[in-house]
Amino acid sequence: MNDENEQPAALNPEELRHLKVTEPKKWAAGMPAVAAALKDIFEETGATRGAGALFTMNQKGGFDCPSCAWPDPDDDRSPLAEYCENGAKALAEEATTKKLTPEFFAQNSITDLARLDDMEIGKKGRIAQPMYLPKGGTHYLPITWHDAFRKIGDKLNALASPNEAAFYTSGRTSNEASFIYQLFVREYGTNNLPDCSNMCHESSGVALGETIGIGKGTVTLNDFYSADVIIIMGQNPGTNHPRMLTALEKAKKKGSKIIAINPLHEAGLMAFKNPQTVKGVMGFSTQLADLYLQVQINGDMALLKALEKLLYDAEQQEPGKVFDREFIANTTVGYDEFIDRVKNFNVDALCAAAGVPVEQVRQAAEMIKHKSKIIICWAMGITQHKNGVETIKEILNLVLLKGSIGKAGAGLCPVRGHSNVQGNRTMLIWDKPKKKQLDRLKEVFGFTPPYEPGYDVVEAIKAMHEGKLKVFFAMGGNFLSATPDTAFTARAMRKLEMNVQVSTKLNRSHLVHGLEALILPTLSRSDKDIVNGEDQFISCENSMGVVQSSKGILEPISKELLNETQIICELAKATLSNRTVIDWDKYANSYDAVRDAIAQVIPGFENYNQRIRLPGGFYLPNGPREGKYESAKFKDKAPFSITQLTVKQMADNEYMMTTIRSHDQFNTTIYGLHDRYRGIHNERRVIFMNPQDITEAGFSAGDQVDLFNHYDGIERVARLFIIVPYDIPKRNTATYYPEGNVLVPINSVDDKSNCPTSKLVFIKIRKHQG
After folding, report:
1. Is the pTM of this model over 0.90?
2. Domains in the chain and their CATH numbers?
3. For 168-188, what is each residue's pLDDT tens digit?
4. Neighbours of 308 (CB within 10 A)
C-alpha cells in the first residue's frame, strides 16, 4: 500500500506468499550452508566467475568480503573457504552477470518497480550506467557522467548554504573513498555527514568514547582463543556474523565457556556444524553456549546489575578473589560510589526485570566468579535501545570489576555489522568531529573546515521534513529501508529538491525521491579497479582494528562504472571549480596519493602505503589493549558509571517488539525468503509470538494480523503479518526489518547517541481486515 496517493510505494507490498513453518534448528551452518551458498553463486554468476571469486575473498592479497566486519585470521587462512554462507550470498549479489541498461529503465516505470518487494527489486541486476530522473519524470533516463556531475554541482552551488545538503555513507565504502568524501564535504562547507553507524553502533562509540577514550572494541581475534569465558549479548552470530562461529568453536576446544544472552533461542548460539571439518560434514556439531540466558527484550541492564550484586556478595566471602582489587585501585575511578549502589541491589527483583530465573543468573555468576579472562561481545540487541549507551557502560562496569581489559583473552567486543563501517568513522565520516581532527585537516590541506556539528541520520530526516535540507547524497546503502519510521522518512525524502545515490544495484531508495534524482553506478568490492591501466587496491578496517588491502578480481559488468573515489573527485571538481585548494585529479588517479594524505591526517596510519602492502595488513593503535585510557574527563583511568534501571509498564494488550534479520538477508539486502534456522520458509511478513500470548489474546497460529502503535499520538501500522508461535519470552515479539521499521518512531532514540530504538518498540496487535 502506498503511504501517499500517486506516489511509488515506500513500503514492501502487503502481499503474502505461501508460508511454510518447520521446526527451528538447534545448530547452525553444516552442509546446508554450503549448498545454499553455492546455489546463489552459480545462479547469479556462473560456476567459473563465482568460484574464482570465492577462493579469493578474505584471502591475503584478495578482496574483503562485502558482508560483515568479522576479522580474518592473522595467521594462515583456510585455502578452502575463508568465507561463510552469507558472505557467498553477498558476493553473488554484487558479482551477478545481470545488468540494468537504459532499455530496462525505459520499460519499467518507478511506480511499477515500487510494486515489487525488496528482494525482487534487488534481484534485477547491477546498474550499468548513470541514470537521471527529471522533475515530473516517471522513468529514469540515461545521462552522461559529465552531465550528471554538472547537474549535481550546479544544484549544490545554488543552495543558500552548504548546510542545506547532507552526505550519507554506508558501511561498504573503502577507507580511501571515505577520506576523500569527507574531505570534499568539508571543503564544500558542512559537517552534515550522517552514516549507518548512527543507526547501529553509535551507542557503542558514545559509551566507550566517554569512558575508555576510544569508541571501538579492545580485543583481537586471538584473544578469543585464550579467553576463559565469552559472553555474547544481543547478538546472533549464526546469521549476522557466521564466521564468528569458527572462532567460537576454536575457543571452546581451548577450554572457553560461553554464556549466551538473547531473547530468542538462536541456532548460531547453541551449536555449530563446521562444514570445513570431517566431523561437521558428517553432521556432528560443537555445542557453543554452556549457559543460555533468555532475557526479555531490553532485560540486559537488569541482568548485568544482578550479576554485579552476586559477585559483590561473593567478594565479601572471599576478599580479593572475585574482584581484581589491584586493577580497580590502579586503573579505575569512581569505584566507591559505584559499589555503594551495588550493595543495595535486590537480586530477585533484578532477575524478575531481566526475565531470567535467579538460579540461572547465579550459575552465570559462578562461571565468571574466579575468572578474569572474560570477553563480552554485543551488537544491535544492546545498542538500539533508549538506554543503549547506559547498558554498554554497565557492561564496562562488570569488566572493570573483574580487571578483564588490557590483557590477553579479555576485553570488550562490539561486533560491527558492515565490512568497513568502523573504517568510515576512522576516516572522519562523522557529523560531530573533534576540533583537533578539523584542525589537522586545516593544517594539511589549507582550507578552513566548518566546526559546527552537522546532522546525524535522525536529525537529517527531520531536517528534510522541515525544508532545511534540499539535497541528499548517499554514498551506498538503502537509506529509506534502513532508517526508522519508514513512512515518515519517505515523506521527508519526497520534499527534497534532489537526491543522489551512488549504488551498485537497484533498491527502494531509488524509487522514493525528490524533485530530481540521480543514480551513479560504481564498482563493487569484487570488481577489478583499473586506473591508468593498472590494477588498484583499496583498504578496509574490520571490527578489531585491523586495516588490510582489498583487491577485486572480476571483470566489471559495464565499462560505464567509476570507482567511488573517482566519483567524489569529479563531483568535487564540478562543484568547487576554481575555488578548491585540493588537487582532485591527483587523488582520482592514485589510491597511493590518497593513502599518503591519510597518513598525514589520521593517527596510526603512518607509512600507510608501506604497511598496507604487508600480508594481512596492520593493527591500529588501541590504548585500552595496552592498559591506557584517555576519556574526556580522565587521564589513564577508566571510570565506573552510575546507570539507572528503568522498566516500562505495559498495558494489558501491549507487547514489546524487536526487529531482526532473517538468515536470508544482510541489512536491507534480501537474498531469499528462507529463514531456515527459525523454520520460516517462503515468507517474511511474520510476527514471532510466545504461544501462551497467542492463546491469551484470542489469536491462533497462522492468523493474519496488523501491528500498530500510537507513539507521540501518531498511529503507525504494519499491515498483514502472520502469527508464528516461537520460543520467545511472554509479551515479547519479533519481526523482520525492513518490514517492521514502519513501527519504529522517529523520536524514539537513545538519549545520548540518538540511535533509533529498533530493538524495542511497543506495539498492539489486531486481526487484519482484508
Report:
1. yes
2. 100-199+423-619 (3.40.50.740), 203-414 (3.40.228.10), 649-767 (2.40.40.20)
3. 999 889 999 999 999 999 999
4. 22
